[in-house]
Design goal:
3 domains; 4-stranded antiparallel β-sheet; peptidyl-prolyl cis-trans isomerase activity; Triger factor/SurA peptide-binding fold; about 475 residues; flat; alpha+beta
């Protein structure tokens, strides 16, 4: 969805994503950056650097895909200042966030970057970090602030709603201003999933192997050598973190919950029993405890799925597809009865767009692999079964049905009412946040660099 006028208020809705990308572009810590960079603004305990302004502007320009950026540097700075103000008061208001929430966001960003660039090594190299752990530490701080901003903003606007009359008025104002939204082509999809599970015999084989390795290490064999020979962790043969199975971790490190729980339950020199995670089965040894840090080594063995099991799952889905096409069963009933995906099977197999929380996907912003699967499929058609695997998650076969395709178009009030309603709600929330910000300026320490005091800000940031 795009608005004809590239007003920052509409760009704001993507701010948290932009900010994450903004700071990722520098592979040094905030303290190191301050030494070589000028401070533009201080808001409470938060700072905005001169370079942050330039990077945010560059990110906005890239997202506008060649269109003119109709906002000044001062306007961009004011938007960043607003976010920092919200983050500052989130801390004052004791907004609660969990380590799990932060790590989930970090993992999501890491997965996105890796998918876009092809490998973790490329991500680390491109963004100038030393290794994955260095990248995760930086992302941890970024995502912590983003969650604070999101929760504080939600608290400020939690009681805000819009009436049908307000939606209608909002739409008419857009019409008068010749500023109706242009909605991109969209698609609605449903899926049926068959998860591939290793046999009990294969799981027993893996556990027996890990127990054998554990006994060998306890008798004096090298854990590192055992990891190099046996581990399925791709980092085991690298020169960075994970080499020989070894990592340095803290409770804030972006490792999966199961891994950290076991690692921090062991004494120095102790080896764990085999345990399961989304990646497979592990054993861990604690090499050294250094205050809040631990040097640990692990061996990962992933149960294998036999070729016969893969073929059987693929055939099962393709036969189910034929039954649906022949009218023997509806896709919705088949999803409910046969799909292994808990999130979609009770909802007619409908895929939910994680960015918008509805069932429509913007074709211009879809996952590239998913787009390639469905872009040439007509409404009502079903793909053949295909294999999908995400590291740390299940291996599976899927069939996907295209429920609906909507061409790109200018907003129509009745056809796009829900989208118009959401835009009207966002605008109303922005107005509430603006009023909140003006009130908070009175009791917040703010210091603006002399290079920016002449900016014609909408709010009274220059009170000091």
């Amino acid at each position: 969805m795009q608005i004809k006028n590239n007003n920052l208020k509409y760009i704001n809705m993507k701010y948290s994503t932009l900010l994450a990308f903004l700071f990722i572009l520098s592979g040094v810590t905030a303290q190191e950056r301050i030494k070589v960079d000028g401070v533009a603004v201080v808001i409470g305990d938060n700072i905005v650097l001169d370079s942050d302004l330039g990077k945010f502007k560059k990110e906005l320009q890239q997202r506008l895909e060649g269109k003119a950026l109709e906002i000044t540097d001062c306007g961009i700075l004011e938007e960043i200042m607003l976010q920092k103000l919200i983050a500052h008061h989130a801390v004052i208001d004791s907004v609660e966030i969990s380590e799990g929430e932060i790590n989930e966001e970090v993992d999501r960003n890491i997965a996105y970057f890796t998918q876009q660039l092809g490998s973790m090594d490329k991500v680390v190299s491109m963004y100038g970090f030393n290794d994955e752990e260095d990248l995760r530490k930086e992302l941890y701080g970024i995502q912590r602030e983003q969650i604070l901003i999101r929760k504080e903003s939600a608290s400020i606007t939690e009681s805000i709603d819009v009436t049908p009359d307000e939606v209608r008025t909002y739409f008419k104002n857009l019409e008068v201003d010749n500023n109706l939204p242009e909605f991109s082509a969209e698609i609605e999809l449903a899926q049926i999933v068959k998860v591939l599970k290793p046999s009990e015999e294969e799981i027993e084989r893996v556990l027996a192997k890990l127990n054998e390795i554990k006994e060998d290490v306890e008798e004096g064999f090298s854990f590192r050598l055992k990891a190099i020979i046996n581990s399925d962790d791709p980092a085991v043969s690298s020169n960075g973190p994970g080499a020989g199975g070894k990592y340095t971790i803290t409770r804030q490190s972006g490792f999966i919950k199961e891994f950290k729980e076991v690692a921090f339950s062991l004494d120095e020199g102790q080896i764990s029993e085999p345990f399961e995670s989304g990646f497979g089965y592990h054993i861990i040894i604690v090499d050294k405890i250094k205050g809040q840090e631990r040097d640990v080594s692990h061996i990962l063995i992933q149960p294998q799925i036999s070729n016969e099991e893969r073929v059987a799952a693929e055939d099962e889905l393709n036969k189910l597809r034929e039954r649906i096409i022949n009218g023997e069963i509806t896709f919705e009933d088949a999803a409910k009865e046969f799909s292994d995906d808990k999130e979609t099977r009770m909802n007619r197999g409908l895929l939910l767009n994680p960015q918008t929380n509805d069932t429509k996907f913007d074709l211009t912003r879809m996952d590239p692999q998913l787009y390639n699967r469905v872009s040439n499929i007509k409404t009502g058609e079903i793909t053949a079964a295909f294999y999908e695997e995400v590291r740390g998650e299940d291996k599976m076969f899927k069939i996907i049905k295209v429920n609906e395709k909507v061409d790109a178009h200018t907003a129509h009030f009745s056809q796009d009412y829900e989208k118009i309603q959401q835009l009207a709600l966002e605008k109303k929330k922005e107005e509430v946040v603006e009023k909140w910000a003006k009130d908070k300026l009175e009791d917040t320490y703010i210091k603006i660099n002399k290079d920016y005091v002449k900016c014609d800000f909408q709010k009274n940031w220059n009170k000091f």
